Input
Amino acid sequence: MNSTVIRRLPVLIATGAVLVLVAVLVVWWRTTEGAVNASTPGNRSAEAGFARDMAVHHQQAVEMSFIVRDRTADEDVRTLAYDVINTQANQRGMLLGRLEGWGLSKTSAEAPMTWMGHGAAHGAKDGSLMPGMATNTQLDQLRKADGKDAEVLYLRLMTAHHKGGVDMARAAVKGAGDTRLKRLAQTMVDGQRAELDLMADMLARRGAGAER
Output
């Protein structure tokens, strides 16, 4: 086994694990579509709030991953970006599907994270609606960066993004009553924590830290 394959082995293993996880999630979700919960979550429930907020959170992660895919030729970073695009796009579809199944709007006039008891505490600005989300300025910086600069910026932004997402998913695991949603939220926690470890290693190999 040559040095290139050995160096990429953690990324390849992580990629395989993520793809298997997505496949299992899709099959599980589809096979339980006919199940009816004892009660349907309300418009202001933790389930509805989490589904709406995480769908927005995931959308930005997908956007950042598409950007970096075109700003670097590094195979490891492009592989990670591909995984984020596929995993989070699939999960976003599941979240929006749950809202549709409950007969609830995909948007709300309430501030993000109101379901967590935070409301406007984050002080959203410059497009960063929730903790961990990149600002419009940071997205513009990513669009203009190339090579290693783009890789490091992406990894730093995605590290912060995942940390915010993990906190939100943990709150859903604790506060939601819908079994399928709780399981999906726990999957997000587990998957994003694994990617946080991977990104920390990728940043270290580039002589960078996770500071934004």
Notes: The two ends are 36 Å apart (CA to CA).
